[in-house]
C-alpha cells in the first residue's frame, strides 16, 4: 500500500518534522499560556510507562516518594546565591491568593531544593536519620521564551530526587548510583536510547551544585540532548537552610546532599531518537500499546478472531489494543498506528482468516509478512525483544558514526557545526575555549575520562570534551 | 507492655487528636505558604496505593489519562458564570512570569473544566469522537482561610475526570457509573469506609453542574465528610466553549459532559474513620506496608529469621517491611508502628525463636498472640482479610447507630447538633429549611430516594435528606 506523505520529511526540515509528528501522532498540543502544553492520552501513556519503569528503579535505591508544596515563599529562593541567580529569570510568581495581595509573593516551584531543605532541617536530627532518600513526582514551572513541545516547556512533569547523607563520599556515590543504575539503566534497557555518561563543566553545572553528572544523547539530526542529570550539592543548601545532624562523635555537622531529575523532555528525546519519516517508533519495552490487532473489515468472523487473538496475546504478557473502528478506512487507521509507532501491528482480514494467517507489520525494522495466527502468541514476544535491541543498536550506531575525534578547537568547531559531535581533549579547550564555543552556538556537553568513564576530577589530564550543538 | 499516652485522646479533643496523629504518624506537615502541606513518605505511600487502586478502576471505564496545564488564562474562568462565581474567591493568580508582568494574568488551576473544554472543542468533531473519556492526576490550588491538613488545604492532589458524550442520558449514566463502580467500589472494598450515596441539593452542587452525586461518610466524631463527587455538567461548559459534534443526522450538537474528582482528603477521612487513641489503623488492602517484621534484639539468629520470614511473607503476596533498627528501643518502635497503623506486626525475639514462634499483633482488632513462625505465611493473608472486613463493619455500625430518623426540622437540628446524622423527609425541610440549617452550621449532605438509592429526581416525593455537621 502506498503511503501518503503525512509528515514533512526529516531531511527537509527536522524541527518541522518534529512538530508535525507530535501533532499528528496526538502526543501533545500547545497550551494557552505561553510555553505550556497539553499532553494527550497517547503521549501521556508513554509518560506513565516511563514513570512506572523509573519509579521501580528509584525505589530499589531505598528512596521513598513524598510531596512538597507547589508554592514556595520567594525568600527561600534567595538563600542560596548561585541557585537564585540561576532560576530568578525563569520564575512564575503568585502575587494574589484568595482575592487579596499576598504579604510575601510565592513562586511556583522551578525545582524544590529550597523547600525540601526547609523540611530536611526539621526531620534530620541525628546520624540515625541518615541517609534520607526522597523522590517526588511533580510539575514544575520555568518560564520559557523559546518553547518547544516536550523539549522546553514553561511547565513540565518530572521526578526530582533529594537526598541527605552523613559524608561527602556517600553523597558522591549516591549521585553516581542514580546516574548509572537508575538513569543509565532506564535509557539503555527501556528507552533504547544510547548516551554518553559524563560530567558537566563548571559553566554547565546546576545552579547550586558542586558537580553535575549527565547523560547526553545524539538526536536524529546530530544535535545533543541532555537527557537527565544527577547533582552533588555538597553542603551548599545544608548551610543555607542549616540542615545539620548530630554525628556519632557528638558533633553537629551539615549534611551532604544530592538532587537528580528526569522530565517529560524524554518524550521529545524518544521522538528525535527513534522517529522516522513515517512517524514515531516506540521501543517495545516502553510501549503502553505494544501490539494493535486490526480488524481490516466489518465482518463477524474477523471481529471474533481479532478479539480472541488479542486475548491470547494478552495472556502471553503483551500490552494489546484492538482496533475495530471499521467505519474508518483501513488505510487511515494503518497510517495512524504507524505515526504513533506501535511496535507491532497485526492485521486480520477475511482472506487471512481463510488461510489461518494474519499480516504482521513490525514498526522498528519496517517488515511486513504473513504469519500463522496460532503461532503469533509464542513468536511475538521474541520479535519485540529483537526490535528493542535493533532500536538501541541504531541509536548507538548514529552516535558512533557521527562523532569525530578532533585535536584542536578549530577541528571541533568544524565537526560539531557539520551536524555531529566532536571529541576533543579538554586541555585543548579549557574554560576559555568553552566560552569561544558559546559564541558559535556550541557547547561542551560533558567531560569523559580518558577511558570513556565518568571523570572523578573535571581537570584530570586526559579528560575529553564532547562538543556539540544542543537542544 | 503499658503504652505511653502518645496522642491526645479522641474523646478529649477530636481535632487535636487528629492533628497529633498526623504529626506523630509522620503523615504530613504544614507547608510554609498558608494552607499548603508537605506529604511525608508514609502519608504519600497511602496516596500511591489510593492512586493505584483508583486508576485501575478508572481505566476499566474506558477513560484514559492525560495532562492539562497548571496555568489557565484568567479569562477562561469567566466564561461559565456559575463556575467563576464559585471559584473566584479561592484563586491563586500568577501575575509575573520570566521577570515580566504578564499581559493576561494566569490562575493556578482550581479545577480544569475550562481548559479541558478549550481542547475538547478542538478534538471533538464528529459523533465518532464520542464518548471522550479523560482523567488527570494533578495538583490544584484553592486558597483556604481555615486550612486543616488533608481536609482543607490550599493545594491538594487529586484525580479529575472529564468526559463528553453525545446525549444527556449517556452522560448521566456515566456520572452514575463513576459514582458507583469507581468511587463506591473503592471506598467499600479498599478504604473500608462506609458511606451513603446520594444527590446534592441545588445549593450544594458543584459550580457549573446540573447535578452532583456524592458519597458522604461519618467520621469518628459523628460529623460528615464529603468523600468524592461526580457531576453532570449538562451542556453548560459545552456552550461556554462551543464544544460541538456533527451528529449522525448531520446536525451540529453541543456535547453533554461529566466531571468527577477524588482527592488527598481521603487520607484525612481514613484517619478520622479508622483511627483510635493509639493511632491510625490502615485497612490491609490499602496498606503499602501490610506487615512489619520486627527484630526485637540485635541478635544474628533473630535478624536472619526476620529476613527469611519477610521473604516468605512477600512470596505469599504481602507487602512487607523489616524493622531491624535495634539501636532504637523496641517499645518505641512498636508504638511507632501502632501510630502508623500497619495492619500486622510480627515481633521476633530470641525467646520466640527457641520456641519456633513469633508474637503477632493485629492492629484492627488489637489482638496479640503467639503464632508458629512456619504457619504465618499461610495464615496471615486470611487474617488481614478478616481485619479488612472488621474495619468496614465498624465504620458501618457507627453510621447506623448514630443516624436518627426525624420527622421535623427541630428534631433534625437536635439530632445533628448532638454529633450524629439526621434522616428527615426533604419535603419537611425544603430549600427554605436548608437555609435555616445553615444558620445553625448544619447542612443537607445529600438526598436519598425513599428506598435508600440515589434519587433520579431531587424533588421526588419520598426523598430523604441527610442532615449533619460537616468538615
UniProtKB/TrEMBL annotation, chains A, B:
Alphabetically, which GO biological process terms does the record hold?
prolyl-tRNA aminoacylation
Q: What is its EC number?
A: 6.1.1.15
Q: What class of enzyme is it?
A: ligase
* Protein localization: Cytoplasm
Transmembrane feature ranges: none
Instruction: Write down the chemical reaction(s) this protein catalyses.
Output: tRNA(Pro) + L-proline + ATP = L-prolyl-tRNA(Pro) + AMP + diphosphate
One Gene Ontology term, aspect cellular component = aminoacyl-tRNA synthetase multienzyme complex
**Which InterPro entries did the record assign?**
aa-tRNA-synt_IIb, aa-tRNA-synth_II, aa-tRNA-synth_II/BPL/LPL, Anticodon-bd, Anticodon-bd_dom_sf, Pro-tRNA-ligase_IIa, Pro-tRNA-ligase_IIa_arc-type, Pro-tRNA_ligase_II_C
Q: Domain of life, per the record?
A: Bacteria
Instruction: Name where it mostly resides.
Output: cytoplasm
Q: Where is the Aminoacyl-transfer RNA synthetases class-II family profile domain?
A: 34-283
A GO molecular function assigned to this protein is: ATP binding
Assigned keywords, A-Z: Aminoacyl-tRNA synthetase, ATP-binding, Cytoplasm, Ligase, Nucleotide-binding, Protein biosynthesis
Domain writeup: Consists of three domains: the N-terminal catalytic domain, the anticodon-binding domain and the C-terminal extension.
How this chain assembles, per its entry, is: Homodimer.
Q: What does this protein do?
A: Catalyzes the attachment of proline to tRNA(Pro) in a two-step reaction: proline is first activated by ATP to form Pro-AMP and then transferred to the acceptor end of tRNA(Pro).
UniProt xrefs under PANTHER family: PROLINE--TRNA LIGASE, CHLOROPLASTIC_MITOCHONDRIAL, PROLYL-TRNA SYNTHETASE
Indicate what this protein is called per its UniProt record: Proline--tRNA ligase
Organism name? Streptomyces roseirectus
Lineage runs:
Bacteria, Bacillati, Actinomycetota, Actinomycetes, Kitasatosporales
Amino acid at each position: 500500500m502506498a503511503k501518503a506523505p503525512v509528515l514533512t520529511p526529516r531531511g527537509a526540515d527536522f524541527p518541522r518534522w518534529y512538530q508535525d509528528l507530535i501533532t499528528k501522532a496526538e502526543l501533545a498540543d500547545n497550551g494557552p499560556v505561553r510555553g505550556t502544553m497539553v499532553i494527550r492520552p497517547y503521549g501521556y501513556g508513554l509518560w506513565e510507562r516511563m514513570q512506572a519503569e523509573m519509579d521501580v528503579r528509584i525505589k530499589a535505591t531505598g528512596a521513598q516518594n513524598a510531596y512538597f508544596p507547589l508554592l514556595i515563599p520567594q525568600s527561600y529562593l534567595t538563600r542560596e546565591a548561585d541557585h537564585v541567580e540561576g532560576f530568578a529569570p525563569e520564575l512564575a510568581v503568585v502575587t494574589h491568593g484568595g482575592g487579596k495581595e499576598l504579604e510575601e509573593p510565592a513562586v511556583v516551584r522551578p525545582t524544590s531544593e529550597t523547600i525540601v531543605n526547609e523540611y530536611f532541617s526539621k526531620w534530620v536530627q541525628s546520624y540515625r536519620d541518615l541517609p534520607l532518600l526522597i523522590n517526588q513526582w511533580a510539575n514544575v514551572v520555568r518560564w520559557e521564551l523559546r518553547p518547544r513541545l516536550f523539549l522546553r516547556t514553561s511547565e513540565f512533569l518530572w521526578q526530582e530526587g533529594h537526598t541527605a547523607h552523613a559524608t561527602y563520599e556517600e553523597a558522591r556515590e549516591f549521585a553516581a548510583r542514580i546516574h548509572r543504575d537508575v538513569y543509565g539503566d532506564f535509557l539503555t534497557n527501556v528507552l533504547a536510547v544510547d548516551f554518553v555518561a559524563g560530567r558537566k563543566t563548571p559553566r554547565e553545572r546546576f545552579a547550586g551544585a558542586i558537580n553535575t553528572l549527565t547523560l547526553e544523547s545524539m538526536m536524529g539530526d546530530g544535535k545533543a540532548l541532555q537527557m537527565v542529570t544527577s547533582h552533588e550539592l555538597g553542603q551548599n543548601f545544608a548551610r543555607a537552610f542549616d540542615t545539620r545532624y548530630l554525628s556519632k562523635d557528638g558533633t553537629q555537622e551539615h549534611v551532604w546532599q544530592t538532587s537528580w531529575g528526569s522530565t517529560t523532555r524524554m518524550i521529545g528525546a524518544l521522538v528525535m531518537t527513534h522517529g522516522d519519516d513515517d512517524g514515531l517508533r516506540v521501543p517495545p519495552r516502553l510501549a503502553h500499546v505494544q501490539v494493535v490487532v486490526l480488524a481490516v473489515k466489518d465482518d463477524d468472523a474477523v471481529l471474533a478472531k481479532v478479539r480472541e487473538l488479542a486475548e491470547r496475546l494478552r495472556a502471553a504478557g503483551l500490552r494489546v489494543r484492538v482496533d475495530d473502528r471499521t467505519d474508518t478506512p483501513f488505510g487511515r487507521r494503518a497510517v495512524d498506528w504507524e505515526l504513533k509507532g506501535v511496535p507491532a501491528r497485526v492485521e486480520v482480514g477475511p482472506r487471512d482468516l481463510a488461510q489461518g494467517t494474519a499480516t504482521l507489520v513490525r514498526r522498528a525494522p519496517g517488515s511486513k509478512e504473513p504469519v500463522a495466527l496460532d503461532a503469533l502468541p509464542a513468536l511475538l514476544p521474541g520479535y519485540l525483544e529483537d526490535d528493542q535491541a535493533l532500536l538501541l543498536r541504531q541509536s548507538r550506531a548514529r552516535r558512533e558514526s557521527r562523532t569525530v575525534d578532533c585535536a584542536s578547537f578549530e577541528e571541533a568547531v568544524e565537526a560539531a557545526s557539520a551536524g555531529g559531535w566532536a571529541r576533543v581533549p579538554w586541555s585543548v579547550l579549557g574554560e576559555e575555549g568553552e566560552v569561544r564555543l558559546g559564541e558559535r552556538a556550541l557547547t561542551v556537553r560533558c567531560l569523559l575520562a580518558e577511558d570513556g568513564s565518568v571523570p572523578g576530577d573535571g581537570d584530570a589530564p586526559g579528560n575529553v570534551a564532547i562538543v556539540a550543538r544542543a537542544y
